Amino acid sequence: MSTTLLAFTVALAAPPLVVAADEAEPGLRAWWRTGELIVAPAEGDPRPGVRPLEGTAPAALPPDLHRWIPLLGDCPDVSSTMARPFAEASATVELAATDRAVTLRVMRGNRVLAAGSLGRPARPCSLHVGQADALPGYEILLGWRAPAGVRGLTVFRVPPMSIDPAALDPTGGAGGP
User: Is 96 strand, coil or helix?
Assistant: First the structure.
């Protein structure tokens, strides 16, 4: 008598969250408002800032910086798990952090739409979702802290197809056959 063993593996795939910018140094400062992002060295450092989603050219800090959202500040520890909703996209960004990794998932209900990882051990200190540049689509702005006073900001681009339900519908919204 012979026995046949069938094994099944379920593979789940999601588009990656692509890193659009990754800045890190001791005392790093960063600010954001819709359509704009600027990072600068530590207070008192004479070097200019930079708009990392626009290139590497030096950028003066704007005079209305007090109206921008500070992303790093004192960079306090935040919860090792958190979520931020996308109002228009009916999706949520979920963050999970351990001593070894920080992972992010874009979710709609129980469905993973996109996923990514910071790629270094760090403690998250801020998480924002919105438009950080002139390109269409959302960005995830993750502020973090590493040993030796290093603070960082990593910007992930959310794949447009992952948040547009019509893009996932092969019938273009016309329903099934």
Answer: strand
The torsion of the CA quartet 146, 149, 153, 154, rounded to 10 degrees, works out to: -30
CA pair distance 153, 125, nearest whole angstrom? 10
Residue 127 near residue 142, CB atoms below 8 Å: yes
Terminal Cα distance for the chain, rounded: 46
Residue 32: closest CA among 117, 144, 153? 153
* 78 φ/ψ angles, rounded to the nearest 5 degrees: -115, 175
**Tens digits of residue pLDDT in 52-91:** 999 999 999 999 999 999 998 777 666 677 778 775 667 8
Query: Which are the contacts of 28, defined by CB distance < 8 A and separation ≥ 6?
Result: 39, 40, 41, 42, 72, 150, 151, 152, 153
Coil/strand/helix, residue 161: helix
Tracing tokens 């950080």 back to the chain, one arrives at 132
Strand, helix or coil for residue 82: strand
Distance between CA atoms of residues 130 and 87, nearest Å: 10
Alpha-carbon span 32 to 27, nearest angstrom: 17
